[in-house]
Amino acid sequence: MSSPVDEVVRDLGHALDALGVGWYLFGAQAAFIRGARRMTADVDVTVLPGTVTTHEIVSRLAGDFELRVPDQDGFVARTRVVPLVHRATTMPVDLVLGGPGLEEHFLSRCESLTMGGRSVRVPVAEDLVLMKLIAGRPHDLDDAAALVRAGAELSEVEPMVEAVAEGLGEDDVRRALEEVKRRVG
Length: 185
What we know:
Layout: H1 4-19, E1 22-26, H2 27-33, E2 43-48, H3 54-61, E3 65-67, H4 72-79, E4 81-86, E5 92-97, H5 102-109, E6 111-115, E7 118-122, H6 125-135, H7 138-149, H8 154-168, H9 172-184
Parallel strand pairs: 2-5
Antiparallel strand pairs: 1-2, 3-4, 4-5, 6-7
């Protein structure tokens, strides 16, 4: 029997694969697959649309998903997030519109893992740690620490943290890394 998350990912996969866009699961569901055991009631995916428009993506998803915000165009333009809800399970989905740079890098390193009998692209554990460090919320740092305990290599994360910190011109991601190091001892 499939879980609600499996149903959401299955329906996302059918629609996004039909459009030919690159996409991957991230967030707590991906961290869960990789060994972090925090439960969450939503699904996060990043889509690299290429030449496919946001309108085309939303139209393709319309049978199984509906928008959670009335002003899709203004909200999506500001945030690059398409907030959806899966009709069959009522589970929220945040579809992030990725672009060149980090999201392309993450997609290029994804692995295909099985979830609910379906192959799903999931970032390698070290990339998930980096995503969690960038987000920097307390539960994200918990997830990052859990991923390290489950086998993610901090030695592979550290150079990426330095590159992100330099690129952003701020030290938040470095401080987040130090906090995770403290937590894993």
